[in-house]
TrEMBL record:
InterPro entries: ANTAR (IPR005561), GAF (IPR003018), GAF-like_dom_sf (IPR029016), GAF_ANTAR (IPR012074), WH-like_DNA-bd_sf (IPR036388). Residues 176-237 form the ANTAR domain. This is GAF and ANTAR domain-containing protein. It comes from Micromonospora coerulea. Keywords: Transcription, Transcription regulation. The keyword Transcription regulation applies.
Length: 246
């Protein structure tokens, strides 16, 4: 075996750490339907999993307008929220569609107002990577260093992978939220609709349950009988409407 072709142990470890981070990120966001909750989980997981990163934040734009963000430490929340000032590494990353690195804020001349606030909060360096979520939502993943240890090439690679993976996961969160909203709207429509609403009222009376649970019962019956929901509702209403034989 040619030992010169083998990767150093540290590089192998970096790959394993990154794979573990992406798995943890996926597990943390896979069942979430609320976008803000997903951002909170994202920045917390990234902060805890990336060595040399003291804090993590996310800057969000919706339809081109500032839409808040998330921060692993509430003290630093203003650094990620464009409503506190749009001139920032995150906005530069979003505008230029590329990763922005500021290794030493003490020598940084870009974003002067933001840099002053960041240094006052103890930030020594930052990496901002653009995140594409969907047609309406874009953002930036922000990794902050709090010590004199430099942000390395590995940090930049991790930020890039995090941003790409986070974009996919956050897009899925928004899709799930949209689907949940559509189901809620459909449920509201069904609850108010003629014969289906009557059938739901019957089930509520019979079982002493709330309307959503009654709708679930009706749906379960439709699935079991393999017939449309409306037909099940009609059968139920007709059945209970028949006069009882004396």
């Amino acid at each position: 075996m040619n030992l010169n072709t083998r990767e150093p142990m540290s590089d192998n470890l970096g790959v394993l750490e990154t794979a573990a981070l992406l798995r943890e990120l996926t597990a943390g966001l896979i069942g979430i339907t609320d976008f803000d909750e997903a951002l909170t989980a994202l920045v917390r997981i990234a902060r805890d999993a990336v060595p040399g990163v003291a804090w993590c934040g996310f800057t969000a734009l919706r339809a081109g307008e500032p839409a808040g963000g998330a921060a692993s430490d509430p003290r630093l929340a203003e650094l990620d929220d464009l409503r506190h000032g749009p001139d920032s590494p995150a906005m530069s990353a979003i505008r230029r569609r590329e990763m922005i690195l500021a290794e030493d804020l003490a020598a940084e001349s870009r974003w002067p107002a933001w840099t002053e606030r960041a240094r006052r909060l103890g930030v020594r360096g930052v990496i901002s990577a653009p995140v594409d979520v969907d047609e309406q939502m874009i953002g930036a993943m922000n990794l902050y260093a709090g010590s004199a240890e430099p942000l390395t090439t590995r940090h930049q690679l991790t930020a890039m992978l995090l941003a790409e993976h986070a974009g996919l996961l956050l897009a899925a969160v928004r899709d799930r939220a949209r689907q949940a909203a559509e189901v809620d709207q459909l449920d509201t429509t069904l609850l108010e609709e003629g014969v289906v609403g009557q059938a739901i009222g019957v089930i509520m009376t019979q079982r002493g349950c709330p309307a959503p649970e009654a709708l679930d019962v009706l749906r379960s019956a439709a699935a079991s009988l393999d017939i449309p929901l409306r037909e099940v509702a009609e059968r139920l209403v007709i059945t209970v409407s028949r006069p009882r034989e004396s």
